[in-house]
Amino acid sequence: MGKQILLEHINKPGINTIDGYMKNGGYASVEKALKSMSPDQVVEEVKTSGLRGRGGAGFPTGMKWSFLDKKSNKPKYLVCNADESEPGTFKDRYLMERIPHLLIEGMITSSFALTANTSYIYVRGEMMYVIRILEKAIAEAYAKGFLGKNILGTGYDLDLYVHPGGGAYICGEETALLESLEGKRGNPRNKPPFPAVSGLYDSPTVVNNVETIAAVPWIINNGGASYAAIGIGKSSGTKLISACGNINKPGVYEIELGVPVEEFIYSDQYCGGIPENRELKAVVAGGSSVPILPKELILKTANGEPRLMTYESLSDGGFVSGTMLGSGGFIVFNDQACIVRNLWNFTRFYHHESCGQCSPCREGTGWMEKVLHRIEHGHGKMTDIDLLVDVAKKIEGKTICPLGEAAAWPVASAIRHFRKEFENHILHPESCSAKHLYFGTLAVH
Amino acid sequence: MSDLLKVTIDGKSIEVAPGTTILQAARQIGDKYPPAMCYYTPLKNTGGKCRVCLVKVSQTSEANPRPIPKLVASCLTKVENGMVVENESSAEVLEARKGVVEFLLINHPLDCPICDQAGECDLQNLSYEHGTETTRYEEGRREFNKIDIGPHIQLHMTRCILCYRCVYAADQLTNSRVHGVLNRGDVSEISTYIQNSIDNDFSGNIIDVCPVGALTDKTYRFKQRVWFSKPYNAHRNCTKCSGKTVLWMKDENIIRVTARKNKFGEVEEFICNECRFDHRSKTDWVIEGVRDMGDDSVISANKYELPVVSPAVLVDSKFVSE
Amino acid sequence: MAFSAERLEQIKEIKNRYPAGKHKSALLPVLHLAQADHGWLPIDVMNDVAEVLDIHPIEVYEVATFYTMFHLKPVGKYVLEICRTGPCCLVGAESLIQYLKNKLNVEEGEVTADGLFTIKPVECLASCGTGPVLQIGPDYIYKENLTEEKLDQLIESLRAKG
Ligand SMILES: Cc1cc2nc3c(=O)[nH]c(=O)nc-3n(C[C@H](O)[C@H](O)[C@H](O)COP(=O)(O)O)c2cc1C
Ligand code: SF4
Ligand code: FES
């Protein structure tokens, strides 16, 4: 196992309490940042670290922070995105449940860097028990003087609150999240303006993923350069991978960026191979939204080089033969899994989760689901395949927010790499390899 | 003035004030400006939703000659100095627009032959200009019952394209909005949730801002096809609004009263419900003269009898709502 | 009024988490409280939510109908929110949902004759590594790595609790 930054102490007794957490060096970054650094120095360290957003887009965190309009006379906000709803992703829940103080420490240090005096953690409503864990941990942090007025006597004030969502994947999109936090429907905003200029309550705001913020304490304690030394090139540091599907050891793994995909799937340190020694068929490497790749292309790039778990290597080949690291939701399919059925399932998800604001996403996701439902249930036509490709193309790049792409890419990639399987479904619906035990319904609300 | 910004759209240049959007600049140039189904100048915060106004920015500005990678909503994107925009000169834009029109129609009932809006429907016009002859959509269509919301207004939700204009209108023109968008995704609907009537001095304006036949004037329903009536500018002394309206006359009868709209279909001055619904005698009004509807209007162009898509689709009666 | 005095105190505290004039932000947390108290969200409860937050009722309806956690119709005492998304299906969620329907003799969204259960398939609960998974409000504790036997036991224990 490589360097552990986030999960180093995860199995220590009492790590979920503030005493246990502090015994293992917890809250050191708050001491260090507030007492010996300026906010801009903290931002600089994070820039040096090369840390990239762990929520999916991989945008450099330090750069995002430096876009915050600090000169504005409005209050600044840091909002943590704990909406984790991308199918295949369950790392943030794991962190918050097991080591809640790591996120809280990260929120305090990061809020200081951003000169925010009020910050929110937006947790999806389904994780009500995680909300209770966080609220308890926050109360402990207030009691120890890490939150509230005049933190550690430095004059810095910070209030931190947890805000529950209500059941909507789209609220993971950062501007939908801000709308939701304002008590509205989760309709994404048109950009510009970006949150860094006009975000929560029209004030300058940074939205960051849980894992991103949880990496900040280590960076401040050990220096950005030490973080940048881990990993490969622009993929610096460690990344949590949520591994699931047809593997022996599903779970959350912290990897040093750069581990070969093949090692990740087959090594006993990680997924431990595929149950019953079945064949690997395909992988969705970064959450349901990223392109699916067949075995040949996920293990090796089109040039025949080993595919690595880095932002760059996974996207090598673009959309023709590559995919993305995304949120790190790693879904493995064995040779019995049905690509068509899975695609119908994913498309139903996007149909169900579209906010309905913009026409291509609202109408296109439902259309694709209905066509896929027909194909999956034995009523497909050969022309449906190209129809799906075309509808996906007409959604992609035309919508307000990236949910359009998130819905289009799985369709485009599944057909690109598994066209034969779609044809087979249409010509010989009875021959599908998966056992169709449950004939689900169309997305209904 | 040196602080004007130069923008070139489909090869034609114009100088505009800072803050001007691409759509407004294109409208100022005047010939082939992008269509807009959700953006509405008189209502704040509208726009960005329908995506029919997408254009290509092939040069961001003089200082930044790079293109913007994705198509942008021209109704919201502000002009920068030296920006170069492709609207109808871009095959990519036309293809995207065709796609959006198709999306807008897949759940639309295509019931133009029995729709009161026929002849003055933005969706109908959009389909002539940018749609295709046939539909590729074979799945079931969304269905809703039509309902009365208050004594004067009928909501035909199947026809709604979720432009949100009526919601902004109620927010901005009345002091207590009772309708909104409920549910989400493709089952979103305009509704009051509970049996509630939209009844307020200015509520009738939501009829005028609706680009399709989703919100219609009950006092007018089925009385006439719009092209058999003749519009007159008229005014009256009104304590609530400007009193400036259009009277739609059939012979000597006022069959409908609306606000005056400019050539972009946008209301010039919102009118009150009293003017709209309660004064149907010619003696209530000072009639100024016949209103010129402009050459583009379906009402003058006589193209109203054509259905939106292939007649073959309409024959299948299950697509005709009601 | 849909809220007890104690709840009203709690709502006051929740409103204080947001800046002055931004009390509409409290809408989702307050709707969760309302549903915990009433099991679902009848119109008069939503109207009371509007009143305590000083917003128009339509603003509450718009939000309550957008988010899937809120029940707008009466539901069973225990709503079994079981994940139906891809990763859980790779490990058997589809057959478990069918098993649950057969066992309780209801379709999705219906209430069992004894008033105890509603089955509500939901989208990914961020438990893909420990699927199949379901949760039950108002505490929303996760039940993970589900099997038919575990479902049997769960239903038994909930029936015993009544
Ligand atoms: C449809 C959609 C869903 C998203 N869901 C999440 C999510 O659940 N969690 C998350 O952190 N980011 C999510 N994102 C990404 C956020 O918009 C945003 O980029 C991220 O929170 C920024 O944080 P980061 O820079 O730390 O990654 C989502 C984006 C989209 C378009
Ligand atoms: S009713 Fe009309 S104005 Fe309102 S959203 Fe629908 S189409 Fe737009
Ligand atoms: S996802 Fe809702 S409109 Fe883009």
Characterise the protein shown here.
The complex is a heterotrimer of chains A (445), B (322) and C (162). Chain A is built from 18 helices and eleven strands. With 445 residues, chain A is of the alpha/beta class. A five-stranded mixed β-sheet of chain A has the order 8-7-11-9-10. A four-stranded parallel β-sheet of chain A has the order 3-2-1-4, with helices on both faces. In chain A, a hairpin with a 5-residue loop joins strand 7 and strand 8. In chain B, a hairpin with a 6-residue loop joins strand 8 (180-182) and strand 9. With 162 residues, chain C is of the alpha+beta class. Chain C folds into two domains: 5-66, Orthogonal Bundle (Arc Repressor Mutant, subunit A); 78-161, Glutaredoxin, CATH 3.40.30. Helices cover 45% and strands 11% of the residues of chain C. Chain C has helices spanning 5-15, 27-38, 43-53, 57-64, 86-90, 93-104, 148-161, and strands at residues 78-83, 117-122, 134-136, 141-143. The two termini of chain C are 27 Å apart. Classes of the chains: A alpha/beta (445), B alpha+beta (322), C alpha+beta (162). Chains in contact: A-B, A-C, B-C. Chains A and C meet through strand 3, strand 7, strand 11 and helix 15 of A and helix 2, helix 4, helix 5 and helix 6 of C. Bound molecules: flavin mononucleotide (FMN), iron/sulfur cluster and FE2/S2 (inorganic) cluster. Iron/sulfur cluster binds next to helix 4 of chain B.
Helical fraction of chain A: 40-55%
What is the terminal separation of chain A in angstroms?
Answer: 44 Å
Estimate the helix proportion of chain B, in percent: 10-25%
Give the total of domains of chain B.
3
Shape call of chain A: globular
